[in-house]
Amino acid sequence: MFPFVSRRAAGGAAALVLVGASLFASTGTAFAAITRFIYVGPDPSFSDATNGTLTFTDSSTNQASSSTIYVKNIDTQTLTHVVVTFLVSQDPVSIVGTYGPNASSCQPSADSLSLACDFGALKKGETRQFSLVVTSSAAGKPTFLGQVYFNESTNPNGGNQQINTLTGTLNVATTTCDSASTFIAPGKGGTLLPDTGDCGLTVDGQRSSLTVPVKKNQAYLLSVNDANTATGCGSLKCIGNVVDGTVNGGAAIDPYLLWTIFYSNSVIGNINPKQVAFIHDTTVILAGNKGLCSTSTAVDCQEPYQVTSTGVFFFVRTATNGVIKGAN
Predict the structure, then answer these.
(1) Residues 186, 69: contact at Cβ < 8 Å?
(2) 310: how many CB neighbours lie within 10 A of its CB?
(3) What residues does CATH 2.60.220 cover in the chain?
(4) Which architecture does CATH list for 11-172?
(5) Where in the chain is the domain with CATH 2.60.40.290?
């Protein structure tokens, strides 16, 4: 999970958290003629008063997804107080973190049930940017709701449209023992290992994961799938299943992408681990000492394998994603 910024909101913002939370039961109907304009959505260049639909990255169940949100004053004058409010839990979707240039303005309520992004006054043309990180416990296309509240007085029922509804739809696949997709926020790094909580060796004899390095300004979109039997190993014999990995659409990873592939004893059989090579797309990564990584940043090479009582862990470095399979 990505923690919320811990700094508490000022008293005025805290009050608006409660106001915003109560608005989720409202119809979102305009209170009167629209005389002030603001845009909240995924497009920083947008110039219309209609709120955009939030755009979330694809994910799988119980994995992270992200939506970057821009709040832009497209009116002709300053808006004195602008707040975007979300319920933290919107079954099956939950907010698990925030990041971005103005994420420090987003604070959870004292009971952690609501999140209010309080941007105060916005001058004409000013924009604020933050991102939400969410998870969904259910597959499909669950919806997500927010409220935009802005005022120029203490009366939210005055002559301006001061409460707008903000919506978004997630695209969530089912996480299995073989496949998963996730988002990793900047400055985090981490490992994606498909897991339903019941992925023991009797269920899944091969466990495959991807690990990306921590980079201050680098976010990652990852997916991994090892459900299909490996084929096409040329003069070599394939081992287990092929691992299909995607990280940031194939962009190079600095210093490298680490693949961890575990073969159970039943999968690797009587093959000596020192004789296991890997084929990454069309590149053969040699077995044994010839294939060992020679430097801390070398790619297309193997780190030393680890033998356990239940099988063998192999660690392979590459510069990019693709498909990879063991061979002997």
Answers:
(1) no
(2) 13
(3) 175-327
(4) Sandwich (2.60)
(5) 11-172
Tens-digit pLDDT profile for residues 271-289: 999 999 999 999 999 999 9
Q: Tell the CATH topology of 175-327.
A: Chondroitinase Ac; Chain A, domain 3 (2.60.220)
| Contact (CB, 8 A) for 229 and 178 | no
Please provide residue 198's backbone torsions phi and psi, each rounded to the nearest 5 degrees.
-140, 55
In this predicted structure, the answer to whether residue 199 has a pLDDT above a threshold of 50 is: yes
Q: Do 307 and 273 touch, CB atoms closer than 8 A?
A: yes
The candidate with the shortest Cα–Cα distance to 205, out of 60, 320, 326, is 326
User: Are 159 and 32 contacting, i.e. CB atoms less than 8 angstroms apart?
Assistant: yes
What average pLDDT does this structure show over 251-266? 97
- Dihedral pair phi/psi, residue 193, rounded to 5°: -125, 110
Per-residue confidence band for 52, with pLDDT thresholds at 50, 70 and 90: confident
Helix (H) and strand (E) counts in the chain: 2, 24
Give, in degrees to the nearest 5, the angle at Cα 193 between 187 and 196.
125
Q: Please check whether residue 243 is in contact with residue 318, taking contact to mean a CB–CB distance below 8 angstroms.
A: no
Report the half-sphere exposure of 251 (CA within 13 A, side-chain side): 11
Q: Which helix (H) or strand (E) element contains residue 18?
A: helix 11-22
Terminal-residue alpha carbon distance, the chain: 39
User: From CA 104, how far away is CA 126, in angstroms rounded?
Assistant: 17
For 116, residues 6+ apart whose C-beta sits below 8 A from its C-beta are 9, 13, 14, 16, 17, 20, 83, 84, 85, 86, 106, 107, 109
